């Protein structure tokens, strides 16, 4: 399809006979020729897709170009069908191109409008075909009636010198006109038969393509059902495994709890053993201390007398501390009085400084005036 000329066809006098009648944008796909199942992108991005009408041939076709490459050049026939396969995707089979085209639109409205236009163009193509067939049938019937009513030539023979050795045939102008008309009608009938055979071939090809598409659709449906069953089986197996894992986790949790309890009991036993050893050591120490109690009593009496002497001295020191505290309070009071007097002096000094500043400003003004 990449070698098809896309410039508008021109008739006599340079008049365009093929014009775009509808244009939209979509992503273009083609069916994989090997698998007949998968879609192969024909464009990297959304491209322009247009309906063209050829007024000379009275035909319609869909054309799309990606850069300099023609990716769709499909002549619409009455046997074609545009099928919506999803909300934004549609497809149709082209027997002449031996492929299936797919279009992905940006919205469902664009897909609906393109499908409606396809149906409209398809009906127009059907009407054009019916008119063409009626015209061919009319010409064929007219030719047969003319040939059955009169022969295309009349022969007139005469004998010269009483012998039949030489004959002269005279053909009139009306017979020659009828003969040429008959030849033209015969060629039109032959062309009609050729077109009919070609249409039959296209119809057979379309039927084969439809059969292949139906088989592919049925196979896809069967695969989908198989995948659904496999998915259901996998889900059931997954649920079973999840339940087993949950049971094993519960068992593991119970075992871990038992281990933790055993570990706690072991630790408690070791703690109790350590406490028992400490108690035994304390008891041994108490026994040793009981042996030195008399010595400790004498030392206690000595310490008591020393403590009494220390208390007496402490009372003396407390008296001295009270005297020092009074001196400190007196000193603090004097210091507070000195701070007050110093603050007053600072206030007076600030006032004097302000007066001096004003005096300087006055002198500056006087100097400026002079």
Automatic annotation (TrEMBL):
One GO molecular-function entry: G protein-coupled glutamate receptor binding
Biased composition (Polar residues): 138-162
Chain segments annotated as transmembrane: none
Coiled coil: 175-334
Family under the similarity heading: Belongs to the Homer family.
Domain WH1: start-end pairs: 13-125
GO CC terms, sorted: cytoplasm; postsynaptic density
Keywords: Coiled coil, Cytoplasm, Synapse
UniProt protein name: WH1 domain-containing protein
A biological process term (GO) from this entry: G protein-coupled glutamate receptor signaling pathway
Compositionally biased tracts (Basic and acidic residues): 125-137
Region (Disordered): 125-168
Endoplasmic reticulum as UniProt keyword: no
Gene designation: HOMER2
Cellular compartments annotated: Cytoplasm; Postsynaptic density
């Amino acid at each position: 399809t990449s070698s098809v000329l896309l410039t508008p066809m021109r008739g006599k006098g340079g008049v365009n006979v093929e014009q775009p009648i509808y244009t939209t944008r979509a992503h273009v796909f083609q069916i994989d020729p090997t698998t007949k199942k998968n879609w192969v992108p024909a464009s990297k991005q959304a491209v322009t897709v247009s309906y063209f009408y050829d007024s000379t041939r009275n035909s319609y076709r869909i054309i799309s170009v990606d850069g300099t490459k023609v990716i769709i050049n499909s002549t619409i026939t009455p046997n074609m069908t545009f099928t919506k396969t999803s909300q934004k995707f549609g497809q149709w089979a082209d027997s002449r191109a031996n492929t299936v085209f797919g279009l992905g639109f940006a919205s469902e409205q664009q897909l609906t409008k393109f499908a409606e236009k396809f149906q409209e163009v398809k009906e127009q193509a059907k009407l054009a075909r019916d008119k063409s067939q009626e015209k061919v049938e009319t010409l064929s019937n007219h030719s047969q009636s003319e040939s059955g009513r009169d022969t295309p030539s009349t022969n007139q023979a005469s004998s010269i010198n009483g012998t039949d050795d030489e004959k002269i045939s005279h053909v009139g102008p009306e017979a020659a006109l009828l003969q040429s008309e008959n030849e033209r009608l015969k060629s039109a009938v032959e062309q009609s038969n050729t077109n009919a055979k070609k249409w039959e071939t296209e119809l057979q090809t379309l039927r084969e393509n439809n059969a292949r598409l139906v088989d592919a659709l049925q196979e896809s449906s069967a695969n989908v059902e198989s995948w659904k069953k496999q998915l259901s089986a996998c889900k059931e197996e997954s649920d079973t495994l999840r339940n087993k894992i949950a049971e094993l986790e519960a068992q593991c949790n119970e075992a871990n709890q038992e281990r933790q309890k055993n570990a706690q009991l072991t630790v408690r036993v070791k703690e109790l053993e350590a406490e028992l050893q400490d108690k035994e050591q304390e008891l041994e120490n108490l026994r040793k201390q009981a042996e030195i109690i008399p010595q400790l009593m004498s030392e206690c009496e000595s310490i008591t007398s020393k403590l009494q002497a220390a208390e007496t001295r402490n009372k003396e020191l407390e008296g001295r501390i009270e005297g020092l505290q009074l001196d400190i309070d007196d000193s603090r009071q004097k210091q507070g009085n000195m701070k007050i007097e110093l603050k007053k002096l600072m206030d007076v000094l600030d006032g004097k400084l302000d007066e001096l500043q004003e005096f300087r400003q006055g002198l500056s003004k006087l100097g400026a005036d002079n």
